[in-house]
Amino acid sequence: MRILFITANRLGDAVISTGLLSELLRRHPQAEVTVACGPVAASLFEPCQQVVRVIAFTKRRWDLHWYDLWRKCVGTRWDLAVDLRGSGLTFALRSRVRRILRGGRRPGRRLGHVASLFHLHPVPLPVTWSTDAQRRTAQGFLPRSSRWLALAPTANWDGKIWPPERFVRVAQTLEREGLRPVLFYGPGAEERKRAQPVLDALPDAINLGGARPIGEVAALLGQCALFIGNDSGLMHVAAATSIPTLGLFGPSRASEYAPGGLNASFVEAPGIEGVAPIDGLSVDTVLAAARTRLSLPRQYD
Q: Can you tell which superkingdom this protein's organism belongs to (predicted)?
């Protein structure tokens, strides 16, 4: 069986789609899957053994990226084509079954929108995949002999970023309670710049940010006792690993993009969703939620 799975350009949305992909793989264990996604999300899918090909395609003017993808897929007869981008591409491919997620904003969580394509109840939660080598690397960097606090103080736009000094205060408080801080952020100079104030204020923190394969990032996060971070792709990766995860929300919509995972939760700045400034979220609120997350029995698959 050949499955084409067209998913998101951004990392967070791609992670949200992994629950559906995992369910399809459970139903069709012999399937060979081709994943098409944005370049930043490509390494999320590469460690999955049933994914035989990852096509990373970048948006081009006049939607020419869809033509590029069509050229790479048109020679295959697909048994199932899943399009989470709402394009018309699959109608130009030979496919026995097509499932297309229509665009436009709809109420409710994005996880539920994706699952609705196959009428899945309960909604499958996101997952991550890592290679054995990536897991060994993670165990070397973050041995379980310590309790690690994963911090993700960046995001793709400034309105979603909780003030760096508050991350520092939370980290210093939890460090006195036995957690050692580890910083995560994405690739590129802008991500490093956003993380720098926290790096400067926490000189003893382990810096694991930058250009790492997502499978390795997932393995590293899996070694941690708690994740605290802004609404970002890293937040969704952490939640998908099933470690205790606390997402911080301001003007972004938790009702749509709350982290999905067995041990995931979030806190929101007070005010109207979609406009509430994230600096309305206090250190005390985040600390209380973090301690609650740590005190709850951890659930496993």
A: Bacteria
